[in-house]
Structure formats: C-alpha cells, structure tokens
Amino acid sequence: MRIFFLYTFALSCSAISSLWERRLKGNQVRVLYSPAAVSSIWVPSIEKPLPLGGKETEQSKSEDLQDESIAYIAFEEEHRSLLYFNVFCMRIFRIPLVALVGCILSIVSVCRAYSQDNSGVLMLDSLLVTGLRKSLHDASVPVQTLSADALERIGATNVGDALKHMSGVAIKDYGGIGGIKSVSIRGMGAHHTAVFYDGVAIGDCQSGQIDVGRFSTENISLLQLTIGQNDDIYQTARMFASAGTVAMDTKIPYANILKIGASAASFETNKAYINGAALLGNSWRASLFADYTSTAGNYKFSIPSGKEQIVAVRNNSDVDIYRGEINTAWENDSHSLRAKLYSYYSHRGIPGAVIVDNPISSERLENTNIFGQLFYEYAPNYSLKMKATFKHNYNYDKNILPRSAGTIEEYCYRQQESDASYTIKWSPYFLYGLSVAFSEELSYNKLQAKNNSLMPSDPSRLTSLSVLSARYGYKWFTATASLLFTYANERVSASYTVPNRRRFSPSLSMVLTPFGNNFSMRLSYKDIFRLPTFNDLYYRDLGNYRLLPEKSRMFNMGAQYSKEEFGCFKYVNISLDGYYGRVEDKIVATPGIFVWKMSNVDNVSLCGADANLSSLVELYKNIGLNVTAAYSFMRAVDATEGSLVKGHQIIYTPLHSGSLSAVLQTPYVSVGYNMLWSGKRYRLPQNISSNIVNGYSDHSLWLARDWELSGYTLTSRIDVMNIGGTTYEIIRYYPMPGRSWRLSFNLKL
Amino acid sequence: MIVKKIFVFLQIALLSLSFGIFAVACDNGNEGDYDSGDILPVDNICYVLNNGNWGGNDASIQHYDISTGIATLGDSQNNIFVLQNGSLLGDLAQSMLWIGNKLFVAVGGSQKLEILDTQGKRLREYYSYSEIGATPRMITTDGNNVYVTNYDGNVYVYDAVTADYIRKISVGVRPEGISYYDGYLVVNNSGTLWAYDGTVSIISLESGEENTIPLVNPYTASVVCNGKIYIIDGGNYNDIPSDIYCISPREGIATPLGISASAIAAYNNTLYYVNNEWNYEINDNVASPLYALDVVTGEKREFLSASKMKNVNSLSVNPETGDIYIGYSTAYGVLGFMRIYDTNGVERGMFTAGYYPGGAYFKN
Q: pTM for the whole thing?
C-alpha cells in the first residue's frame, strides 16, 4: 500500500511539475533558483501584486510583454507553492515520507524545467516581487514585518519611526532627527533587543543600546520585528541570544535599477539619496546606496512646566548625516556569497533635556561607524546547508563638552568588534520532518577611551555563543526547541579580576494549525539574559564590575487568522498574542551621595497583549483601501521585594498604545493617514501624578502620485506630519516636533 | 456590491475616526491638587530643599511647620515654589540660605540664583547661563552679605537685604562648599573633573588675601563647629578614601581627622557624620550609623543605628534646638524622606520629601 501511495504521489508530483513547467514556459517566465537562497522551511510569503492604483499600469504593461519576457523572481515565491502542495499532500496521504519524496521529486522536476530555458533574457520591472506582504501566520512567535511598500506607506524615514507602528514595542525617542531612538520590546528594556542588518548583528558593547534612528528606510526591503525565538532554526547564534530582534534586510534586486530621490522638509531638513543595483553577469549582482541628511532641527515647542508652559525653540539640534554602503552578491546552484561595506558619519548637537530657565545647550557629538561583512552559504542539497558570516565593526565617538571659563572637554571612545559565525542545518528526509541545526558564533569586543579616563580599564570581551536547535513539523503541528550556551571572558587593565560568565538559555515554541492554514495558534517560551555593558561594568566610579547578567523569561500564547478573498476583503489578517514575563536582576543605578553605582536590584513583572490587524478592501475597480492597525496592552511593573514602588508601572511604558494606518489607492493618486497613539507614561519609577508624561496622538496625512516620464517613473509625495501640532513628549523634556511638512521626489530609472 | 463596499469603507473610516478621537481624548494628564491660597507660617519652621534628578527639572522647596509637624508637598509639581510662581523651580537645586525675610536658592542645572520671600514668591533672579557651565553651587553668609560659589571659578557676593549683586571673588577650579567664620571665607575647590586636584581657598574678607591648601576632592560639605570649619574631602572613590578635614582659617591649616564621611552637620561642639560608601560585597551602599564626634574632647559615639542610613543625602541641624534632620533616599526615582531626631536620638517626626532632600534650612 505504501509503495502504491509512493508511486501515485510521485506520478502526481511529476504531472503537476509538468503542468507547472508548461505554465512557466507558456508565460516565458524563468525563475532564478538556487537552493542556497532557500532560507528555511518557512519562507516569507510574498503576495502577488494586486491591480490597484498605479500598480495596475505596470502590471498591464508586463502582461503585454509576457510572451517575450522573463521575470526574475526570487525562488522563495514559487518554491513556497510547492511546499504548500507538499503540506497538502502530507495532510491528504498522512505519510510524511511520501511527502518528502514527492517534495524532492517536485524540486528536481521544476529545476529541470527551469534549466531548459536560459535564453532570451529581457528585463521586466521588479513589479512582480513587490506587493502586499502577508503576516507570517504560521510563525510560532509574534513576527511583524514592514515591506518596502509598507515603509513608504507609513512615511517613516528611519527605522526608529517605522518601528513605532508595530505592537509590543516602546520606542524611546529623544526627539528630532538627531534624537536617539532605542527599542524596548514588551518592557524588557532596550538592552534585550538585538538589531541585525542583513543578518549580522549591530553591536554596541559600550552602552548596549542601538540607535535605530540612524538607519534609513530608503534601501530597506524588509523590516522585521520578532518577539521571542523565531522557529527558523537556520540562523546565526546571535539571533538566539536576545529576547527580541529587529532585522533589517537590504536585498540586492535581480535587475538593473537606479533610484534617486530628494526631499525638503520643515526645520531646514533636507535629504538626498541614490540607490542603484546592477546585474554583473549571470551570477553577480551589486548595489550601491548613499544618502545625506541634514537638519537645523530648530523647531518651536511648548511643554508643560508647573502651572505654566515652556515655549521656546529647540537649539543645538542640528544634524548632518552621511551614509553609504556597497553590496555585492554572487550565486550559483549551491553557493552564495555576499559582501557589504557600510559607512556612517554624523556630527550633531546634543540638545539635551529642556531645562527650566536655562536655554544653553552646547554638547556636540561626532560619530564614525564603518563595518564590513561577508556572508557565505553552501547548500549542496536540500537536506543540508550551511552558512558562515564574518564582520568587523569600527566605531568612533567623540563627545565635545564646552565647560565654564571657555574650557572644552573631549571624550573619545573607540569600539572594535570582530565577529565570526557558522551555522549548519540538516533536514534528513528519513527523519520525518525533523530538522536540526547547530550554530557557533565568536565575537571579540574592545573598547578604548581616548584622551580621557572615564573608561580606565580598556575592557575587552570574548563571547562564544553555541546553539543546538531542532524543529519538527508534522501535519498541523510544528515544534521548535533550542539551547544556547553563552561563555564570555573579559579582560581589563585593572587590578581586579573579572569572572567569566557562563549560562544555558533554552527556548521552546510550537505552532498549531488544526483548522486549516488560515488559522494558527502558537505557544512559546524563552529564557535569555543580557550581559552588563562596558558602561555598566567599568565606567569610572559609576561602573560595577561585579554585576550579574540581567535575566528575562517570557511566555507567549497567541492566535492568528488570515484569509484572502474574504467577502469584500482582498486580504485580512488578525493576530492576538498574550504574554507573561519577568526580568530579574535588572541593572539600574543606585544613588549615592558622591557617586551613583550600577547594581542588580530590580525585578520586573510583565504581562500584556498585542493585537494586529491588516486588511485590504477593494472598494471599486482599481480603488483599494489598505488598513493596518496595532494595539498593545502592556503591564510592566516593578516586582522587587521590599521596594516602595513594587507594583508601579515601569518608566516610559504605556499601559495602552496603538497605531493606525490607512491608505486609499487609486489609479491617479494615493492618499494615506497614519496615527500613533500612546497613553500616559511615567518618567520615574514612582507612579505619582507629578511623574506622569501625558499621552499623545500623532496624526499624519500624505498624498502621492506617480508620473510616467519617457519610461521613467517619478514619484512625488507630500506629507503633513503631526497635524495636531502638539509638541508631545515621548521622553519628558525632550519635545517632539510639532506640525511639519515634507516634500519628496523619487525618480526611478 | 458597490454599495456594500462603500459601506465597509465607511465602517473602517468610522472605526479609524473613533480610534483617533479616543486617542485624543486620552491625551490629558492628571495633575495633583494644590491649594494656592494658604499663607504659610514663618515662625518655628524650616524649609527643605530637594535636589531633584539630573535633567528632570524636579527640584523643589518644602515648608515644614515644626510645631504641627506638617510639611507641604515635595514633588516638583506641587511644592511651594510652583504654588507661588506657577513655574517649576528648575533643575538640580544645590543649596539654600534663609536670611531675614529672603530665601536665596542656588539652582545649578538651571544656572540661576533665585531670591524668594518666605512664602516662596520670586523676588528676583540672577541667571548665569550667559556663560556655559556657570553653575551656582553653595551659599553662606556673614550676616551682611551672601556668598555663592559658582563653577565658573568665582564666589559671587550679594547684599543680604537688597539682594543686589556686589562683586565677585576669584577662587579655584569648580568651587563647591563654602563657610564663613571670623572674617574668613573657606571655599572648597573641587578641582578639574576627574583629576582630583582640589584645593581649599581661605580668603580674608578684610585684606582680600587668599591662602590655598591642596587637597584631593573637597566637595559640598562645609560646616562651622567650635570656631573651626569642617569639610569633607571625597577622596578619589578608589584608593584614597574620603576624610573629614578641620580648617583653621586664621592659621591657614587643614588637619585631617582620619574619619571617612559622606555627610556632616554641626551643633555646638558636636560634629555629626555618616559614611555611606559603596560596598561590593553587599552590592549596595553601606548602611552607616550616625556618629556624634565631640570636637573638643575627640570622643566619638554612635548616635543612631544604621537601620535607616543607607542613602543619606543630607544632615542638617536646627540651630535653636539641636534637632537633627536626616534627608535620605531609598532608590532612584523614588521620593526621599526627612527624619527628625532630638539631641537624645529620639525620633521627633518624619515626612516625605522630594527627590534627594538636600537639607533643612533654618533662619540665620
């Protein structure tokens, strides 16, 4: 019977593959395929573009050309169909082995079909790889994504602003373009959030916090926030070593593209960028991105001060930012190699907090950041693949502080980080849906204080992260488990000895789809910790070299429903997650009469819920309304025994917050509305009225239109931001800009 | 079908609108009640100055009625300065002086010297932000003039009655604590940041001569006790411990007592001190007893046990009764407390203060 099923299934696969092949040939579409490009069992879904608004013109054009054209489509899109098919087969036949054999046969068959047609290449617009991105309904932890289109819709110019539209996160925004923006996931603190740029972690061993505001959204193809441990086990070890991750992806398109753009905005804000990509043969691709941003940042504000208002203009908030990066990639059937060189330079004023009766602000900061990273992946067959990364990061900060009597103090810090990792994943067909992976990552961090004695120890840290993980999928059930072992060795030029740090960190997750693919339920647990930063440990007088790691545990339970063609909805996706967690040995500063000291004193208890909605309604032919909304309830309270503030909501964590985005797309113009909303927060641990930071809502409108100019596409857009005009505070005494505008143009060649 | 889609669109629009309205409705914060019509008594009272958090604009002034044991609120939004003036006091209040019917308040972060009446109403203010880092610090008086140290390296002199600016006296680097006795000003110059090259300037107000004594890190603490001036040298927070120095202004000498301390206060011949230093073994500040040192006999005794003395911000003494006022904090961002003990160590009262109570100030 089993042989019969196998035979039947193989025939079915072959027949379907032939049909597929015929369809592809009929459309003269070639899919560039490389096993190395398959990142994991779960593949991010990318929906085909919908004939809405300006997109329809391009699609129609592509349909006209389809008889003689070849579109370059990432393998994931089509391969996902096959995977779905095999999942379907697995459910029908209930014989995983048969499904696996079928899967292999399908892949071989399709590959054979693709390999038969390599000629007659004519480039199409990259239209087919863009479009509405569905949420990952089968992820075992909350994963929120913003595609390039979505980033454009919400009008965020930097990653920090974009993340405000996601649920479960609190962005500490110190205001303006130059204000630092750090991400705290579910009240655990920014140190528990790891930030990745094209799969490689961005590190800051000195402060442990990454300013996500310094990353432009112009060249980001995908922004992804993951809370907990993703069930993709084919990841670098660093991905396992934090409570949540923010991943920025800058894919190099399979096309020759040149985009240039410029914008002008309130407060003398100007921006220009160039983004180009080129195919350098069948296997090579390269891209370049450069941008420049400048602002005077001198916006007027009005904030409460006692019974009165402070009305003034922000000063010393000018910023100049220069960014550039070069990427290149080479791929063949089983090998993939990517390289990136990134540089960043900024000089800016540090306006600091608004101080009552003291308008002086004179601190300056210069920051240089250069890093290069290499990525290599080898996938000899479907069951085995491996990848390796190498990165070196150089960061130089110079703080300039004018002091009294005309003296100037300078504090310079140099950070260097070298990081190497490899990951192997094995998915043997004879293990019935089980995949195992091992990842090892070594990183070396060194911090040197130049011309100052604030960091007298010149600390360095060698960290080893080893992860063994497994994933098992069967029918409507998928489970993932991982065990991370961390070892850190530190050296300092001081008389004391810093202890080595070792710790095991487990994570478990599962996703269930008992009622079909549209509905999934998930459950996850993650135990993780963060090492004290070098500032925590060694900053002069304040640092405490005996600090323990700060530990966090998080349980998550959620459900997600997504469906296409649901009534008048072209697409609808709803997710709801509840969580409970705890942070122990939280590292905080303890006040003293002379100096303060960092210490492990606080515990935090977390519980809350996140809800997300995204939908697309086709109102009329070619007129669509895209609505996304997010809501977070987050109760994060001090749970320290004996503390006077036990049970008080922790600082800058709203109980309620949310966002809403609505875009009306027509063939002529697109109109969008974005709203961010946050309830009240507390600026200090004690929840008393004088510590309340008022809630806020920020409403923005935009209008955009595409113009076809001799084969080029010019996109013009005007944004009116914070139309309410309230200079609200996310961080007390750091007012945000009031009503402002931005006019931008993008030319695609 | 079209009607249905329009209906759905309207539903979504309505939902968006209601969400937006709900968000706007939640904008308003909640401020504490405060009755601004009260006239505060000025007899048998003291004022408490709370330093506040750096960058928090939450310095505050409290009024404490010793007779009734009632203190006004100490948080930034509801203290007597806001009551009388509407605006916040500012950022990082350093010290205060009550002389005659005026209160002189140095607010360091806001770089200003406020002159208030005894109700807390602003009479005059001097801003020093025209120069970067010109931060007023500690205040003393000789009965006629008021002397204010400033990080710009000067001591500013004001008339105690009119509050007019008179002149400035150049001293050392980053002057902090200051005391007056017998025609001399003794100024703690904390020195270059992180360099621990502090000095003490002894200035004869009559001749204008200045005598400088090198120390390590003389800080804000400076009190007069039995004809001498006692200061704390904070050490370098590493291998040089803090120490109490006895300054004889006329002789121009500084004698270390070999006693580590973080706060001091004086009454008659008794010098009170505590020492809350960081201890790595307990991962916290050491809870220090309050000691009483007889500066004449050299006898030292434990005046109060260590139970409440972990983060003492200030020690003050009522010059009439000798009651000890201990301002302390429990944790970051939590309102501090003021405890009052009589000369026998019996607790007389306690009230919630503001952030980091910097001292109780009595009439000069």
A: 0.82
